[in-house]
Design brief:
Length: 182
């Protein structure tokens, strides 16, 4: 049943991706895909299941984009996806977002060291789960500065918070200017 559902989804996705790429290949630099593959403690499916069921779909989609354009492949996936990142890169992911640094095995230093020369990180700038709403403005400042210094080293980083800024975050926590020398 899972294969039948994936086949139907892929039919629709490939139809749309072909149209997007043809229409936009000379006008955009990034195409976004979303597949929340992780939860707080690890992948939602085992790496083995990912490789058997989902990676072939991702590979088909992402490689189509690469073969028919110069567009970068952006994947939004929340949660702890550390164990899947090598497979995602192999499938064709160029950019990972939102880089949920509060999830297990998603520490900025570890991600940058292991994958920083293979994929760009678009996010991870400030932890919106724990630090942004609960930390003092000074703690938020130090947290952001540390993450920028880690992720931006040698390029491959687009600053963004981990996820949406919640309504309970006072403006003074996101209004301080930050200057980081790299």
């Amino acid at each position: 049943m899972a294969s039948a559902i994936l086949d139907r989804m892929m039919s629709v996705l490939m139809h749309n991706v072909k149209k997007y790429v043809e229409a936009l290949k000379d006008h955009v630099q990034v195409i976004g895909f979303g597949d929340d593959l992780g939860i707080q403690t690890g992948p939602q499916v085992s790496p083995k299941t990912y490789r058997e069921l989902l990676k072939p779909c991702h590979t088909e989609l992402f490689q189509y984009v690469k073969k028919h354009s110069r567009i970068f492949v952006f994947l939004h996936s929340c949660g702890s996806i550390h164990d899947l990142i090598p497979d995602l890169i192999d499938a064709g992911v160029d950019i990972l977002n939102p880089v949920q640094i509060s999830a297990r095995n998603m520490e900025p230093e570890r991600l940058k060291k292991e994958f920083g020369d293979q994929v760009a990180f678009w996010g991870g700038g400030v932890d919106t789960q724990k630090v942004f709403h609960a930390g003092s403005p000074e703690e938020v400042y130090k947290h952001v500065k540390k993450n920028i210094l880690v992720f931006a080293r040698n390029g491959g980083y687009v600053f963004n918070q981990v996820h949406n800024i919640q309504a309970n975050v006072p403006p003074e926590k996101h209004s301080r200017r930050l200057q980081v020398g790299l």
